[in-house]
């Protein structure tokens, strides 16, 4: 194979150079699957970022990543989930953690001081992640062209400040003090609305920004000068490295990528193609990969092309960047941007790519909001295989068989619908309106209408109804409903018929949780949309303009504004001096240490030399004999040192995991019978925690239910069993108690 222009520091066996809190670090010969969080916590003194969920969903590991463009001399900063970010993708980047913006030695940052002063820390484990989410929002806002704020404040608005922590989900201390901390930096905040704090006495002293720890922009250097010099020096002597047995590949063009695809060692089962690796938070890797191909440095995948026909967005463009692009556009584009801002969390949107989301929805049963919205907007995609380039509608692309690893999604084109006679709406139902919550159902509707001069009603000339996440492989269009609605004006009878048709079209797959609820949500979305088009249904006095707004200027769609932030409230407290200082709002000792990441938790204590790690193997069947435990052949299984089970308990020992006087003893291992699904049946021992977890997931367990009664899986079954044994005195109704 020929030589490839490649980032010399981006392959295993070579060095990755980065700055961590202003200090230079090198990583040589690291596993290409190593994440930034692993590197920070095992190769540097940094302990602020924590491993919480490991999926990019909790925000405990958030850091600020800064990249420098020597051509423009511009530094770009963004928050990121370090538990998903691969180290190899960060060559010549700067990483700032909570320790880097403030600490006991150099003084605390106002973000850390205000988190402490507003009592926004309890256990403090995830507070450093919150700290960095707020700090990242401040850095981003300070670079906007907005007017300079009043001294002590930032350019953030209250809404932007509250959205900054929408992905930081651990709030054991209560949501309000965290939000108050965020809003204390906002230029449009009413300080009297802020809650209990240690800066002024609530209800007695006047609220004054001068009493808050002073904030000034640019106080923290996020990209050191030495790293800029190294980057500029590398431009003069760009290396050429033979791509052979290295673990990390960084092609700089589509041609180089195809050359890698054609190499003898390429195997899609052992090679992972990554842009941001956020997909690993949704579909956890079932095995380790020997080689990684990093495609975010390919210019063709980062194209952004605006024209009067629409917008073409490269597949490697981040979701956050796509939101910026759509926000500065027509009403349809702005609606798309608004919906995309509810997808995942800020630090995931900063990393995750628009193309990665689309390709994942095409290959896997992924409940994508983005695909549903783009489908309704009439988007097309450009893909490239080894032999040709194709342009397909997004619907055609989704209907194709799952793409193989060598099929490249180049870009997505979204047409410009303008605003005349076009009404576009999106909806989603999720456990939370913001912050890493997968939709139960999502929808997007686009209607092209015309006015009937005689009746004053809107006629639906054309319509697209897209639904997703309701228990199917990918988003689909309700074609039968669309055909029925074309050419009609909306009436109660038309809505009723459309709803009945939709119930037949929306059919969740077998095994989908709460199928009836999901169908009812889809119906409610359509009902709401069509009702807004019917001029005589709800508000006969208000004519509907072609852009979907009422004659009085109010938005006809989504008038409730349930997703609007910030939340406003007042807090009135009455204090007594009878038992002081009990009941006084005193700042917790150590709160600033927690916010800076310097507080030491058990997991922050360095592991001893030659430490091994374990992970439980859990039973997947209830009430079954465990005959054997093996591992499927994989790279992760090769890392297993041993497996500990009940058979390894020494003579005289007991298989007891816990014991309580009221509940009795509970076995450590399910042996010889697994009593319930999820019971521990063994422990995998490996050199790292990651290897142990992955190997445990790949355990192949052989069961037998011979001579065993069927498991009891419902409350009703348990009651019937008790009745058979004559124990009926304590039995109530299974639902009412």
Automatic annotation (TrEMBL):
Its cofactor is [2Fe-2S] cluster; Mo-molybdopterin; FAD. It comes from the Eukaryota. It catalyses: an aldehyde + O2 + H2O = a carboxylate + H2O2 + H(+). Its EC number is 1.2.3.1. Gene3D superfamilies: 3.10.20.30, 3.30.465.10, [2Fe-2S]-binding domain, Aldehyde oxidase/xanthine dehydrogenase, a/b hammerhead, CO dehydrogenase flavoprotein, C-terminal domain. InterPro entries: 2Fe-2S-bd (IPR002888), 2Fe-2S-bd_dom_sf (IPR036884), 2Fe-2S_ferredoxin-like_sf (IPR036010), 2Fe-2S_ferredoxin-type (IPR001041), 2Fe2S_fd_BS (IPR006058), Ald_Oxase/Xan_DH_a/b (IPR000674), Ald_Oxase/Xan_DH_a/b_sf (IPR036856), Ald_Oxase/xanthine_DH-like (IPR016208). Residues 14-101 form the 2Fe-2S ferredoxin-type domain. Residues 241-419 form the FAD-binding PCMH-type domain. Aldehyde oxidases (AO) are homodimers and heterodimers of AO subunits. This is aldehyde oxidase. It comes from Triticum turgidum subsp. durum (Durum wheat).
